[in-house]
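Summary for the lay section of the report: proteins are chains of building blocks that fold into shapes. Here we show the chain for Retrotransposon gag domain-containing protein and then a coded description of the shape we predicted for it.
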Amino acid sequence: MERFDDLDFNGENNDAHEANEPRENFSHIQAPQTQAQDNVNHITMEDLIRATVRSIMIYDEQRQQRSTSGGPSYPANSNTSRSFSNKEIADLLPEFSGVNQNVNIWLERVELVQQTYKVSDEIMQLIAMGKLTAQAKEWYQSKVDFVVMDWKTLKAEMKKMYSVESDPVILRKTMERRRWRRNEKFATYFHEKVLLGNNAGVPEKEMIHYVIDGFDDKQLQNQ
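The coded shape description reads as follows.
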């Protein structure tokens, strides 16, 4: 039977042959973890915002490319000539309120969807007007002539009505005024700020600074 006084409670046996055995050094395994931790510690608020802005802008670019490339992609052997319902077409269009939105960008998307899915002017006009909300909807309903107006003329009327709202200078000022509110989720503020910046055509590098500047916390702004 092994005697307890021959054992060390630190996990080492006092036998001579075990004490003389070489022990493998595992300290080098910690080096990668330490380096990774150092890299994390050096990430700044600006780095995080830059990465998030870039991700959203890449997503928007890819979404626009899908629109201009002919809508949803299907396998080569699939039947892409099938008919699409009005609801399916409508689901591809964003709503238009006429407030803080670029009417030219909205109409451009409407026209791309119409061309891609070969929708007639009459049906496209019906679908597009169904996407109007708030002030834009009130404007459309305020004049009965809009109902019988052809699609090309109606689009021209919309551009005339909302061209001021589409002015890049005004859109940029609107984006600048959008600031983070106390107790507001960062994701909500960030998403709205970037969308306003996209409507105003603000470049990515500038957008990062506008997002940071939207915080009232000076400590965050100086990071």
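Put simply, here is one thing we learned. Residues 70 and 77 are 16 Å apart (CA to CA).
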